[in-house]
Design goal:
The protein is 19% helix and 43% strand. By secondary structure, the protein is of the alpha+beta class. It has one domain: Immunoglobulin-like. The strands form two sheets. Strands 3-9-8-5-6 form a five-stranded mixed beta sheet.
Amino acid sequence: MKAFMLVLLTMSFACIAKADTVDYFRVYYNEKKIKDQNFYGSSAHISIKASDIKPGDSVTLKYFRDTPCWECATFVEVFLDGEKVIIGKGRGTGNAVSFAASDLLRYKSKTGKQIFHVYYYETGRIATKSPIFYITLN
């Protein structure tokens, strides 16, 4: 009976525990979290109303993995039609990397395109070949 209770208790903790070996990320608009996602699915999609973007607004990414690097350079690159249009730079896995939301608006106004592909990578690691999320300006 004690063994059964121990197994049942262990299984209940396994159901509540968050997997820490799966890469995941959080996206913030200014300081408000707008996306929290792991990589067990398709790329995330984020919609931002273009009319809501004000000077000084930012999009921030915090990326987490089970093997972080503390001193590596980190980058968020935003592409529009295969062309790199925005770069955000940081240092260390899990630390914030930001770029100006007004840059998205500027490129939308310039090109008429509204879907941006966002990539994250760290120096010393192989870069992700597909975007981790998309931003659509409405």
